[in-house]
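Run C40 family peptidase through structure prediction, thanks.
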Amino acid sequence: MPPTTTTPLHPAPVAENSATRKLTKAALQQEKAERAIKVAKKQLGDPYVWGATGPGAFDCSGLVQFAWRKAGVKLPRTTWAMLRHAKKRVSLSHLKPGDLIFTSGGGHVGMYLGHRKVISAPHSGAVVSVDRLNAYWRGSFLTAVRPGV
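Sure, done. The structure for C40 family peptidase is below.
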C-alpha cells in the first residue's frame, strides 16, 4: 500500500511585512492613477463649464474628481476642499502620474500625466486639454497632492 500524504484544506497564511504592504499599496496607487489618467484623457476636447462635473463638460475640479471617482477614489468637489482634505502632499520634484497640481490661491487644479504634462479644464471658452508643465504651472505652483487609495 503506498504511503498517503495529506494536504491541508486551508493553506497557512503568508506572513506580510511592512515592505510587502508598502509595495502593495504603491502598486494599487499606481493602478488607480493609471485608470484616472485614462478616464481624464477620454475627456479631451470636452468644454469647460463652471461647476460642471461631467460627463461632457467639466470645470477643473470636476474633471479630476470625475476621473479619480471612475478609478475608485472619492475626492471632494472643489479645489479648496481637495486641499483641505489632502493627506499626502508632494513637491514638484516628486510628482507621479495622477498627482493633482494646485496653482496659487488654490483656485485651479490639473492632473499630472508624467513626462512634464498636465491635463486640465483650464477656463471658460476652453476645452479639456494637455499642457506642458511650463512656466505657468511652475510659476503659480501652490502644492501637489497624491490622492489616496
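Residues 45-145 form a domain with the endopeptidase fold (from Nostoc punctiforme) fold (CATH 3.90.1720.10).
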